[in-house]
Amino acid sequence: MVADLNWWRGGVIYQIYPRSFFDSNGDGIGDIPGVIAHLDYIAELGVDAIWLSPFFTSPMKDFGYDISDYKDVDPMFGSLHDFKRLVEQAHQKGLKVIIDQVYSHTSDQHAWFKESRASRDNPKSDWYVWADPKPDGTAPNNWLSLFGGPAWQFDTRRGQYYMHNFLTSQPDLNFHNPDVQNAILDTARFWLELGVDGFRLDVVNMYFHDAALTDNGLADSPEKVFVGADPVNPFTRQYHVHQMCRDDNLEFLKRLRAVMDEFPGTTTVGEIGAPGGMKYMAQYTSGGDKLHMAYTFELLDKPHSIEHIRNTMEKVEQNLGDGWPCFALSNHDVERSASRWGKDAENPKAYVRTTLALLTTMRGSPCIYQGEELGLPEAEVPFELLQDPFGIEFWPEFKGRDGCRTPMPWINEAMGGFTSDGHPWLPIEPIHRQLAVGEQKLNADSMLNFSRQLLAWRRQHPALKDGRFEWLDSDPDLLLFRRVADGESLVIALNMTSRELPVEVSGQAVEVPGFQPAGSGRIPAYTLAAWTE
Q: How much is the pLDDT for 16?
């Protein structure tokens, strides 16, 4: 059989947050052997790939997004041997393996930073973004950290400030230095040689900064507002075009793509949090010489009106050109979509089904976050049990990311089948236990079984994998579009409202599992309908 080197175009990705997936050794923290233990469950969903959030050596100030060794596994998650077993067994089950890569910053415990901060004239002195204080001793400019306060921390050893877009313990690498780029590319090659099939690239638009350290202006119009941060965060008041989103990034992405091309069939998906993220999605994925695909936060935010969804999809089609999108409605950084979008729905259960239908029929590669296939709502984590420094900083208006990171419920019991320990790293959400995998497997009408059926149905229609996208005239509250691939033209009607809507379509109706059929020119509430032409 000839390998499909473009499997990622329309391939379904399942995101795993290892810390919360399954604890194999009873320490209250999920691990790589725990992922291996449930590979059959993932394969049975009908997805094409798994994406693992960071499992690398780290002091865990930001739960793995602060890396102190790019080329090793943190002992809490297992070992390199465990990771190699995971890749081997995933491949045996037909699953590709994508891993997170955090290139914009390291932990302050990384050997590179320890050397860099030691003096102004050591070999790695300019591997990070260092700058002198202003004459009055204040920070070099007005840039802010996404996690609160200035984006600068004073270091007494060098008598300079270093830049950090996130925690003070996450210093930013200086990508203007070619040696830094080479070291990062060496990291990529290390994991590719171990057999990984691709990378999810954390904050891919934040690698470069304006070397002149120009102050940020005000986000004084909607198109200047950073998408991907809560409005209560002062970070959103600045227009961050000097701090990130620099054109220098394009040449580095070309260098990274050249490394990926040495390993045919591998892929990259970049995370873009930015003002006007669609523009960068197009820029970073065009031409076939940079990223394979990228995603932004427009559908990971709170707005979810039909108009907003339509406008987002239209922007993709208008901007993307020959690029390719990846879309998610939930992930490890945002409130789960079942709560963020579905809590005000007249029929929340039915609405959650239509959101998964949206994700799996729009043009792009869908990414499903662990538990989304169960319809899990956001967990309630009391302040005294919060772990996320982001949430602790901005409590109570912004509760952080712990509510979407609580342990995966496998069975309906006190610890949810996640751990044998009585003290999981985050509490088990009681509502989640009722939605556990074990409970839903036994219910033919469960969200889990619906998810499996929907993904199986999608596989039967090549137009939904990588077909073209065309809007069709319809009621403004209906999403009506055509997907076209060689040999198939499929019309999709998606009603995400609580009332019947008119629809005029010619063609042969296609049965969609889990949804009422449309007929007599009407489409029922909370329904996906399809026709072949």
A: 98
Contacts of 178 (CB under 8 A, 6+ apart): none
Which residues lie across from 128 on neighbouring strands?
A: 173
334 contacts 404 by C-beta, under 8 angstroms? yes
DSSP-assigned states of every residue in 94-124: T-EEEEEE--SB--TTSHHHHHHTT-SSSTT
Cα atoms found within 13 Å of the Cα of residue 476, Cβ hemisphere only: 4
Q: Residue 254 phi/psi, 5° resolution?
A: -65, -40
Radius of gyration of the CA atoms of the chain, in A: 23
pLDDT tens figures, 82-114: 999 999 999 999 999 999 999 999 999 999 999
3-class SS of residue 143: coil
pLDDT on residue 1: 59
For 473, residues 6+ apart whose C-beta sits below 8 A from its C-beta are 480
Contacts of 2 (CB under 8 A, 6+ apart): none
For residue 2, is pLDDT > 70? no
Catalytic residues: 202, 262
Please report, as a single letter, which amino acid is at residue 65.
Y
pLDDT in tens, 459-471: 999 999 999 999 9
d(CA 450, CA 115): 53
* Distance of alpha carbon 533 from alpha carbon 531, whole angstroms: 6
What is the distance between the alpha carbons of residues 474 and 502, in angstroms, rounded to a whole number? 8
Q: Cβ contacts of residue 170 below 8 Å, gap of 6+?
A: 61, 62, 65, 66, 105, 106, 107, 108, 164
Residue 4, CA distances (Å) to 1, 48, 292, 457 in order:
9, 12, 15, 20
The overall pTM is greater than 0.85: yes
For residue 272, how many C-alpha atoms fall within 13 Å in the half-sphere facing its CB?
A: 29
Confidence of residue 3 (pLDDT cuts 50, 70, 90): confident
Dist. CA 441–CA 63, nearest whole Å: 31
What is the DSSP code (8-state) at residue 3?
A: -
